[in-house]
Amino acid sequence: MTSQEAPMGAVRTINATEFKATCLDLLDQVNSGTIERLEVTKRGKVVAVVTKPAAPAAGDLHGFLRGSVIIPPDLDLTAPTGGDAPTDAELGILHR
């Protein structure tokens, strides 16, 4: 069965030599779902399994606000914010 003949969502086993020669096409097929699981063999033993990464779980907080904050171009994020009044640390106050 060639790469184009694999049924949608198929599990495919391929030897390492053929994988090396066609890996970019095979990775595209895994990404598109044409191949669900690709097993790479060496001397008849499976040495690697290639699958599409899992979709991020609902509720995954990493990066969920990306793109939602707008910083005006004239805002200097490195400028001091406290004014001229001394801070509690400068006054030796540890707790309030």
Structural account:
The chain is an alpha+beta fold. The protein contains 1 helix and 3 strands; from the N terminus they run βαββ. It has one helix at 16-32, and strands at 10-15, 35-42, 45-51. It has a 3-stranded mixed sheet with strand order 1-2-3, covered by helices on one side. The longest helix has 17 residues, at 16-32.
Shape field: elongated
Beta fraction of the residues? Answer: 15-25%
Q: Structural class, please?
A: alpha+beta
What does the main sheet amount to? 3 strands, mixed
Describe this protein with a few key phrases:
18% helix; 96 residues; alpha+beta; 3-stranded mixed beta sheet; 22% strand
Please render the helix and strand layout as text:
Elements: E1 10-15, H1 16-32, E2 35-42, E3 45-51
Parallel strand pairs: 1-2
Antiparallel strand pairs: 2-3
Question: Gist?
Answer:
With 96 residues, the chain is α+β, with helices and mostly antiparallel strands.
